[in-house]
Amino acid sequence: ILNVEQSPQSLHVQEGDSTNFTCSFPSSNFYALHWYRWETAKSPEALFVMTLNGDEKKKGRISATLNTKEGYSYLYIKGSQPEDSATYLCAFIAGGYQKVTFGTGTKLQVIP
Amino acid sequence: DTEVTQTPKHLVMGMTNKKSLKCEQHMGHRAMYWYKQKAKKPPELMFVYSYEKLSINESVPSRFSPECPNSSLLNLHLHALQPEDSALYLCASSPGGADSGNTIYFGEGSWLTVV
To answer: Which contacts of B39-47 are long-range, i.e. CB under 8 A and separated by 24 or more positions?
Structure first.
């Protein structure tokens, strides 16, 4: 069983604040890490696919970094907006595996 | 078209019923997945089909039976379920084979309630 953990479990921020949260995963046998955004009553939407140690990806106000040697990834949101309210899931893929193991998720609520 | 379509969106079934969940994608993806998600837990993998062949069964009870009639369709046949099987069932697909690490595209899910 692969241990993929996210922190914090939930987060409330004011509109305009920047925020970040963490995904921790096994540091051995890394293949890829995905970040997904899941709004209530919608399907999870892929944000980033990260494969290389030191990767930094950006999409608008959202960015992510990856450290495969120590087994963590950060997701940053700059200037949070109410529409950013969602659950953010990371997903770890081990080498040689076909299995995607999801983290426990961080539920973000942005207060107008 | 970047959609994974699941039907029905909601299903209520008795413990003796036989029903099916359906999933369809027309993106030419070669891997398709069933996930189960209980409240406040991450999605858990159930089955993976890669190039229309079952490649992973995560020790799922036989009352769940997957079927991949062709590369665009994935079914989950349900029979003699228990109330604890009530959950959100997510279908997903990805380009290439399931071991490619590609982005996974999810459907909106089917909410199943077993009474």
So the answer is: B41/A104, B42/A4, B42/A89, B42/A102, B42/A103, B42/A104, B42/A105, B43/A44, B43/A89, B43/A102, B43/B90, B44/A102, B45/A99, B45/A100, B45/A101, B46/B76, B47/B76
